[in-house]
Amino acid sequence: MALSSSFSLPSISKIDHAKKTLRPRSNDRSKQMFDFPLTSSKTELFGHQLVTVGAHLHKSWSFLGGSRVTMRPRHESIVPLRKISQVYTSWLASSQIASTAFTFGTASVLPFYALMVLAPKAELTKISMESSIPYIVLGVLYAYLLYLSWTPETLQLIFASKYWLPELPGIGRMFLNEMTLASAWIHLLVVDLFAARQVFRDGLDNKIETRHSVSLCLFFCPVGIVTHVITKALTKNAGSSSTRNMH
Length: 247
Description:
Layout: E1 7-8, E2 15-17, E3 20-24, E4 31-45, E5 48-62, E6 66-80, H1 81-118, H2 123-130, H3 133-149, H4 154-158, H5 168-174, H6 178-206, H7 211-219, H8 221-246
Antiparallel strand pairs: 1-6, 2-3, 3-4, 4-5, 5-6
Helix pairs in contact: 1-3, 1-6, 1-7, 3-6, 6-7, 6-8, 7-8
């Protein structure tokens, strides 16, 4: 009996085979079609999964051949198991890269903030603030993450409006990707450190207290800049008042 081609059966109206029920669609005895749903027929072949979704059975009758039923598959697909495994491995590797870059970037800027806050007048702090190495390293890391996170939809998500301007829903969809989120975090760390260094230098040049402003620049950079501007204005006013009193 070969199901791949055809097989002979007596004239019946219901067939049960391997807990699958066949029912005729038509009352015409000369030609009847059966539904044969195969809900879970899977075969693994050379690392691929063969999935049969369903089949049609066509019944015909003749005096010479008797009753004949032919099975025709409805749908058959091959799911490459190796490809699925590679996609999962790639996603896992991307997640690990994003997490490692996030941790490395955060840890690399903390020593510079610690020097500016704890030892603002130390020679090591002044030398560190003159160096461009942290910006080069973090800039290369940012470019690498940007390359990994870039997709054909990136520009469409950034310039989603008809005026080629960013829109909040598009930016929100873009940051659902961990790699994109990690690259944005590195971007913020570089900009915040650069702003904190400018605040620190300005404080040294004008003899202004900057430790509170530098600390705020780590996670609240705009607030830290505003705080430094206010501190600088108050310091100048206090200096002018003291000079007038002396005269």
